[in-house]
Amino acid sequence: MQAAGMTIIFNERGVVVQKGVGICKTENIDRAFNVTKVNYSLWHQRLGHIGKQKFIELKNKQMIYDLDQICNINPSDDLCEACIKDFVAKSEAHFDLKVVNLYSDNGGEYLSNEMKDYCCEKGITYHLTVPRTPQLNGVSERMVRTITEKARSMIISACMDKIFWGDAVLTATYLINITPTGALK
Q1: What DSSP character marks residue 75?
Q2: What SS3 state is found at 6?
Q3: Which residues does the UniProt record annotate as the domain Integrase catalytic (predicted)?
Q4: What does the alpha-carbon distance between residue 119 and residue 150 come to, in Å, rounded to a whole number?
Q5: Taking a C-beta distance cutoff of 8 angstroms, is the pair 76, 111 a contact?
Q6: Residue 104 DSSP SS3
Q7: 68 in Cβ contact with 62 (< 8 Å)
C-alpha cells in the first residue's frame, strides 16, 4: 500500500489509511485486516488435517515456515474426530450406504468418549488395532496390495509407460469399487 503512495497510521483507536485527501478509517484493527486467531484448528486445516502426532513432529523438527506462530500452540485430538464425522456424513450421502465398521490404530486420535458415543449412535462398530503396526491392519493392507497389483498388471499388459501409474491406480480402485464382491454381502 505504501508503494502505491498511501500512508498507513496505526494508533490506539484503530488504523487510518490515507492517500492524498481520501481517508479510510477503522476503529477495530482485527476487523480491518481480518486477523485470524492462530490456533491448532487453523494449522490442522492448513496442513491437510494431519493428526496430533504429525503436527508435534513438524513443530519439533521446525519444519513449519511460521514457527514463531505455532510455538505456543497445543494440539488437540478433537479435530480429527470432526474430520471422521465429516467423512462419515459425506460418504453416506455420496454412496447412499451406511458406514458399518471403523478401524483405528489405537494411536489415541479417536479414543475419546465423544467419538465412542458418536459411533454407538450411528451404529458403527469400532475396532482398535495395535498402534503403529500397519501390518496388523490386514484388510486395508490387503486392499493396498490388490490395488497395486491391478495397476501394475494394467500398465504391463497395455505396454504403457510408468507415467500413467496414477491413472492406473485410479482405474484399479474404480474397478474394485464397481465389481461385485462376497465381502460386502
Answers
A1: -
A2: coil
A3: 102-185
A4: 33
A5: no
A6: strand
A7: no
